[in-house]
UniProtKB/TrEMBL annotation:
Gene3D superfamilies, sorted: 2.30.30.90, Iron dependent repressor, metal binding and dimerisation domain (1.10.60.10), Winged helix-like DNA-binding domain superfamily/Winged helix DNA-binding domain (1.10.10.10)
Species whose genome carries this gene: Chryseobacterium contaminans
SMART domains: HTH_DTXR (SM00529)
Keywords for this protein: Activator, Cytoplasm, DNA-binding, Manganese, Repressor, Transcription, Transcription regulation
Predominant location category: cytoplasm
Family label: Belongs to the DtxR/MntR family.
Protein name: Transcriptional regulator MntR
Compartments, record wording: Cytoplasm
Length: 217
């Protein structure tokens, strides 16, 4: 049975919010989706009937293996679309999220399989986030926030936790792109802003920005 657009939005929210124990609360979903609690409760009861979650009143939801897979497959469509728009249609990484939000609800599996084939089966999207495979499996990454790194460290910019236009344009303006090597020169004690060096050029990043940038050592 095909999932509805609303169901897919809930599934994607579960994907982003679920913790390491496979749990998420109704309140977290309500805030993330900006939907009233009674509506979230009603939808999660439907998800429980589909065996996507285990639902008990006043307890955190437990996302089942089936639910995790369904959620990952929605995310797969979104991230493949973003990659296609960047690699094959020359969109900037800051311009693809909203378009992918629309195309992710296309139900044709063949369409996305062909997109995957044309892209030569990419493992990551334009923002450095892993693309789930056809079975909903996802690559685990050992990344940390740039804000948690110390002065003198050399790291590689690997991903972002926020892909809105304004933030990505902010990174573009500073020539901070994926796989860029970054040296941390100084961290201000007052506001935790960070001076970094990229290809011999220094840039200053706000604490808000360093919280949203993920790196690997």
């Amino acid at each position: 049975m095909k999932t509805t657009l609303t169901e897919e939005n809930y599934l994607k929210a579960l994907f982003h919010l679920v913790d390491n124990e496979g749990k998420v609360t109704i309140n977290e979903l309500s805030k993330f989706l900006n939907v009233k609690m009674p509506s979230v409760n009603n939808m999660m009861k439907k998800f429980a009937e589909k065996k996507w979650v285990i639902y008990e009143t006043y307890k955190p939801l437990i996302v089942t293996e089936n639910g995790r897979r369904e959620a990952a497959l929605v995310v797969r469509k979104h991230r493949l679309t973003e990659m296609f728009l960047v690699k094959k249609m020359n969109f900037g990484w800051e311009n693809v999220h909203e378009i992918a939000e629309q195309l992710e609800h296309v139900h044709s599996q063949i369409f996305f399989d062909k997109m995957d084939e044309i892209l030569d089966h990419p493992k990551f999207d334009p923002h450095g986030e892993p693309i789930p495979d056809k079975d909903g499996n996802i690559i685990a990454q050992d990344l940390q926030k740039l804000s948690s790194c110390g002065e003198g460290e050399m790291v590689v910019f690997a991903s972002v936790t926020l892909s809105d236009d304004a933030f990505l344009t902010y990174l573009n303006d500073r020539k901070l792109l994926l796989n860029t090597k970054v040296k941390i020169i100084k961290i201000e004690s007052f506001d935790k802003s960070m001076t970094i060096e990229i290809d011999g050029k220094k840039e200053i990043l706000s604490k808000k920005a360093t919280e949203k940038i993920l790196v690997k050592k």
